[in-house]
Structure formats: C-alpha cells, structure tokens
Amino acid sequence: MTASPPRIGGLDVESWGDPEDPIVLLIGAPERLSGDWRRSVRALVEAGRHVVLAAGFDDAEDGSTALRRLLTEIPSRPAIVCSDVVLHAVAPALAVTGPALASCLVIVAEGQGTVSPEVEKLLPDLPVQVITKDSGPDPVEADNAALLGFLERQAPREAMLYQAGSDPRTLRDALGCFATGVTVVTTLDEAGQPVGLTANSFSSVSLDPPLILFCLARSSTNVERFRQAQHFAINVLHIGQQPTSGVFARSHADRFQDVAWETWDTGAPILSGALASFECDAEQIVEAGDHLVIIGRVTRARFEPRRDPLLYFRGKYRRLHFS
Ligand SMILES: Cc1cc2nc3c(=O)[nH]c(=O)nc-3n(C[C@H](O)[C@H](O)[C@H](O)COP(=O)(O)O)c2cc1C
C-alpha cells in the first residue's frame, strides 16, 4: 500500500486507494501512519474508499481555516475521520451555514472519548459517530468494523448497474464482488502428461453423492483434454501458493516444472502441500455459454486444517483478515 501525493486546497496531502472512490479525509493521524491507523487505512481502501491524510490542523484557529479551505476544494463532500485530540480544530471548520462541507464525522477516541456540548453545538446536522477503543481480542478490527459500518450507512457508495446487453466487463466486475478461494484443476492428457490451470469457479454441489464442479472456459487450450478426461483433481491453494496460482494462469511451457506434485489412485496431479485436494471421477459436463460446467464425483480428499486460504476478490489476490 503506497501513498500518492496529490495537492488539494493548496496543501500537500498523502492519499491511498483509487482517486475515483469516495474520499475519507483522515485528520489527526500521526504524520507517518503508525500501526493502528495504517490498518484502518488499509481496511478503508479495501472497502472502496479513497483515503486522504490531512495533517497539520492542530492549531484551533489556523487549523480550522486551512481545513475549511481544503473541504471547499474537494469536489464531493468527504467523510471525515479524526482523532478527538484535534476535534477543537475540526469542529469549527465544519460549522458552516448552508450546505454541509462533509457527509459525516467519525471521531476516534484517543483522549476522553466524549464530545463536549460546545463541540456538539457546532455540528448540529452532521451525522457523528464516536468510536471508543473496544476491549475485545482485536480492538482495531472491532473499531474498523464500526467505522466501515457507519460509513456504509452515512456515506454509501454509488452502486454500479448491469443490465442485459451491457458491457460484459461490467458483469465481470459485478461477479467479482463474490469472494472466492483459488484452485488449480489438473488432469492427465492422452500421453499421460500433467495439465492444469488456475480456476476460482470451484463450488461444492452435493454431499450425497459427493459432487463438486468448476467451470472451464471454452477458450482454454486444455478444453478438449478435460472433455476427454475420466478423472481430474481440484487443488485448493493456501496463502503461500500465490506464485503457483500465477504460474497456472499464464501460458507456460511446463507449469508443473517448479511445483511438487504426486498422484493418488487416478493419476490426476495432486499439488503437494495444497490446502485441500479433491480427486474426482468425471461425472457430467454441461455446456453453458462460453464455459463448460465440469462436475466431478469426489473419490478422495486430503486437507490441511490450519493454513489460511489464498483468496480472490475484485480481480486481486487477498488474504483473510480475521484470526
Ligand atoms: C484467480 C484466477 C481464477 C481463474 N479462474 C478460471 C476459471 O474458473 N475457469 C477458467 O477457465 N479460467 C480461469 N482462469 C484463467 C485461467 O487460469 C487462464 O486463462 C489459463 O491461462 C488457462 O490456461 P489454458 O488455456 O492453458 O487452459 C482464472 C485465472 C485466475 C488468475
């Protein structure tokens, strides 16, 4: 996560995330973001916010004037997240007659954690949330959840729309909202050579009988090999196997060259150390648009209960947040 340095309101500010996303103005964070704030910035960016760090507003008078100028220069009304330590400068900047300069205010309690009546008087119509330090096992995670929940309610992002006939890219973006794991599906070709590709279209189908599926693009160079295969395997990747996912998604002379693999009963390649591997008999193939839905009957599975999965969401690899 690297910051880019735009200039807004005559001030140098640091920002993270996509400049097209709604702005969250972070005020009063340590100038070089320290651990807790950095996690909050990451959570905000991952929730689709453009985080702008505005420092140097500590002085009540000059700080308020500079902040008000900054707010009037920002094209849309930002959500403001500030520490209560700088509230004395932030509140007067927001106290305007006419349209509000911010969509909402989140006060992260580092000091007292209360909003004084004088400050409250300055913010009559602004939705305000005070976040006090949670005492649970992961206070930052809890604070971030409260922060994101409030922003979703008070400053919702504009939803995108797909309709029949729209650009397929928009549909892909819509489908990318569904977070998945990542697998490598494998089989042997007629010559007994291993073939495999990265796929996140894996799904469980039935427990009795034990069925799973994945979808294979008709454009895959391996489509005929999977059509003919009597058996295949699905290898669910763990967080350390992102490079493997990359190799099996790129055209590569021998994708199996640098990965350890073994075979069980059917010969379908099982990647050693995968989070889970499912060996399957080919059960059914359904022709479905530009993909084949390939259904397999699980004959054997092995899984590692303690590792974290590699995740894929909105076109990027991700990791689990929760411990
Ligand atoms: C995270 C991720 C998930 C993917 N999921 C699928 C999938 O479910 N089905 C598919 O056909 N291709 C999927 N792909 C694309 C293939 O891995 C990629 O096109 C690969 O190069 C195909 O190789 P092939 O043409 O040699 O079979 C995915 C790629 C990535 C990076």
Structural key phrases:
alpha+beta; 2 domains; seven-stranded antiparallel beta sheet; elongated; six-stranded mixed beta sheet; Pnp Oxidase, Chain A; binds flavin mononucleotide; 8 helices; Rossmann fold; 323 residues
Strand-helix topology:
Blueprint: E1 7-8, E2 11-12, E3 14-16, E4 23-27, H1 35-46, E5 50-54, H2 60-73, E6 79-83, H3 87-94, E7 104-108, H4 117-122, E8 128-131, H5 139-154, H6 168-175, E9 180-181, E10 183-188, E11 194-199, E12 203-206, E13 211-217, H7 223-228, E14 231-236, H8 242-247, E15 261-262, E16 270-271, E17 276-288, E18 291-303, E19 311-313, E20 316-318
The chain binds flavin mononucleotide.
Structural write-up:
The chain folds into two domains: 148 residues, Alpha/Beta hydrolase fold, catalytic domain (Rossmann fold), CATH 3.40.50; 145 residues, Roll (Pnp Oxidase, Chain A), CATH 2.30.110.10. The two termini are 21 Å apart. By secondary structure, the protein is of the alpha+beta class. Helices cover 24% and strands 30% of the residues. It is elongated. α1 crosses α5 and α2 packs across α3. The mean pLDDT is 88. The protein is built from eight helices and 20 strands. It has a seven-stranded antiparallel sheet with strand order 11-10-14-17-18-13-12. Strands 3-5-4-6-7-8 form a six-stranded mixed sheet, with helices on one face. Flavin mononucleotide binds next to β11 and β13.
